[in-house]
Structures are given as C-alpha cells and as structure tokens.
Amino acid sequence: MSITKKVSVLAVGLGMVGTLAACGSSDDGGDGSGSGGSKTVTLVSHDSWAASKDVVAAFEKNSGYKVKVLEDGDAGQAVNKAILTKDNPQGDVFFGVDNTLLSRALDNGLFQPYRAKGSDLVRPEYRADQDKHRVTPVDTGDICVNYDKAYFSRHKLTPPKTLDDLVKPEYKDLLVTENAGSSSPGLGFLLGTAAKYGDEGWEGYWKKLKANGVKVVDSWEQAYNEEFSGSAGGKKAKGDRPLVVSYASSPPVEVVYADPQPATAPTGVADGTCFRQVEYAGLLSNAKNPEGGKALLDFLLSQSFQEDMPLNMFVYPVREGAQVPEVFSKFGPQAKDPQTLDPAKIADNRDQWVKSWTSLVLK
Questions:
Q1: Backbone phi, then psi, for 178, in 5-degree steps?
Q2: Inter-axis angle of helices 202-211 and 184-197, to 10 degrees?
Q3: Of the candidates 179, 105, 185, which has an alpha carbon nearest to the alpha carbon of residue 142?
Q4: Cα–Cα 20 to 30 A to 363, which of 4, 57, 58, 178?
Q5: 75-84 vs 184-197: helix axis angle to the nearest 10?
Q6: Which residues contact 269 (CB under 8 A, 6 or more apart)?
C-alpha cells in the first residue's frame, strides 16, 4: 500500500498521469489567495498519488476547497523532505508515510492531532497512534515477490512460493530487489525477512540471498519497469530478471492497462514472501490551512475515495464496507498470511537493520 512506494506507484510506472488536472495545477486558490489561501488546500505526497477527476471534483464542490497536489518523489524522499520543512511546510496534508517510516515522522513532530471523520470505520488492524490521532490510515497493500509466468513455463520451472525458496539453486540470478535504504518496497522486503527469521537469522538469510545472485537497484521503477521480464515496461526494456520485489496488486495492473486485456495475468505472486504495508496521511504541523486539511483528511476516509483507490493507486481500502472492483480482487488478492512487525520494533531497529543490510549486501 508504500504500501510505498507503494502499490500506487505501479500506475505511474505504466505511464498513468500521477497529477490531477481536476486538482488544480495553479498556485491560485481561485480567489487570488494563492496556495496559502483559505480556498486552497495542498496535499503533499509521493509521486504515486492518483484519484479519479470526478471524485476529486465532487469533494471540491461540496467542501468549497480547491485541491492542489504537490508530488515530491519517492515515499522515503518525500517523508524526509517533509520533516526538513516541517516549520514551514509545503502544504497542509501529507499522504504516503507508511508503517515502515511512521515512527520517523511521528518522532520528528511532522503531524498535529486530528481525528478524521470515519476513523471509527477503519479496520482495527490498520489503526495507529490511537492515543494522539496524528495520522489517519488511508490504504493497505502487500509487498511481495512477483514472478514472470511465461519465463517459468518456458523453463519448466516451478515458481518460488516462500522466502526459503528464493535461496535455492534453481532460482540463482533470477531475483531483483530494491535498495532498502532508498526504496519503500525494498525496505518492506527487508522488514519481511526480519519478521520471518528474527534478529538472529535475517542477516544469514541475506548472505544466502546474495550468494544466490540477488540484484539490487535503487528504485521500484527501475526494478519493475526495467529489470523485471514479466512487466509491460520490463518487456520493452528487455529485462532479464523473472523475479522482482513488487506488490500483490501488481498483476491486476498488467491486466487493466493491457490492450487487449488478457484473460489471466501474465505475472503471479509468491504468497509466502509478503509483508503488509499500511499508508497514512496527516495534518502537517504549521499547516497554513488546517481547516482545509481536516476536510481533506475526512475525504480520504470517505466511501467515495476509498472505493476509488483500487483502480487508481492499486491499493486496498482500510474502511469497513468499502467495495473493491472484481478485476482488482480477482488478480490482486491480499496475501493470506503476510509478515508483519510491531511499529515499535520497526522504530527501534529500522535504522540499524538498514545499516547492517547495506554493509552486508552492497559492499
């Protein structure tokens, strides 16, 4: 769900427009007030924000606020920049901090408290910071290894199913993953191995993975759209890695945006490799338009926005009762038993894990 980034970056990677004309690209709030005016509310996000124009237009009409979207790079990059500019923020609401980076944002005072309308309808397992309500859960997704079905069929090789499978000789030199220090899915994959093998075992696992030829690149876009042989982008780029760290919702992207649409997805998911990601939004400290920011957070939990997300950002809603399109649930079902980690454990260990991983895998 960046879920970084997130599952929604898939849409951008396949050429979708990540900015919204309906959201307004001008600095003018419509009343000559500029981005800080009361009629404009600014959403700061990673590059994978997307929503239907009519859904955003309905919010603008009902609320009286014009929405401006400021996309600010990869999820990790966007969070870091938001922290550095927290005293004079670029906008009013930040969207896209996930459970792998949440503690960094909270510890640095990025958000001010606000309990969004509809918070009581968020599924309990996705709630966080319940005592202070500094963040609002928005979406969820699973970071998982994807495989190129055609490759494994041609080579008469069974695709891997679990993390243990990935270190077997038959999968040598087949996997590409992202840098855990610069990429949200790369970090999520690292955390999934820490959850699976524990403090004493994850480094040994990565030694085996490195010996088995894992390739590390900087970003999801590079891994999925250039190195992975199973994606539309990877085919064009002549990618030669049939295994990639991506999302459980990557296969429906390959179906929805194919022309003509295939009856089955060309890619599959190794269900035993998944780590659950949850993405949050929050009202930025020192926001110039806090009332507009609160209205926008309410909108992100609304039924209309939650049901709009699956085929725009390719993530699952967190609101109880929100419906998911059949094409999305059919080709991108959530993992049945994903790895998870307590946010407090992530906070205590993330930086050291990344440092150790970097030393072990990249040097």
A1: -100, 155
A2: 120
A3: 185
A4: 4
A5: 100
A6: 144, 145, 146, 147, 248, 250, 251, 332, 335
Write down the pTM of the prediction. Answer: 0.84
Task: State whether residue 119 is helix, strand or coil.
Answer: helix
CA dist 271 and 315 (Å) reads: 16
Kindly report, residue by residue over 17-67, the tens digit of the pLDDT: 333 333 333 333 333 334 444 699 999 998 889 999 999 999 999 999 999
**CA–CA separation, 155 and 153 (whole Å):** 5
For residue 75, the model assigns a pLDDT of: 78
Which of 100, 60, 154 minimizes the C-alpha distance to 69? Answer: 60
Token pair recorded at residue 270: 């190794």
Q: How far apart are CA 61 and CA 64, in angstroms?
A: 5
Round to whole Å and give the CA distance between 312 and 10: 9
Q: pLDDT value at position 72?
A: 81
Rounded Cα distance between 63 and 290, Å, is 14
228 and 214 Cβ atoms separated by less than 8 Å: no
Tokens read off for 327: 């094409």
Q: Hey, which bits of 80-150 come out as E strands?
A: 93-98, 111-112, 136-148
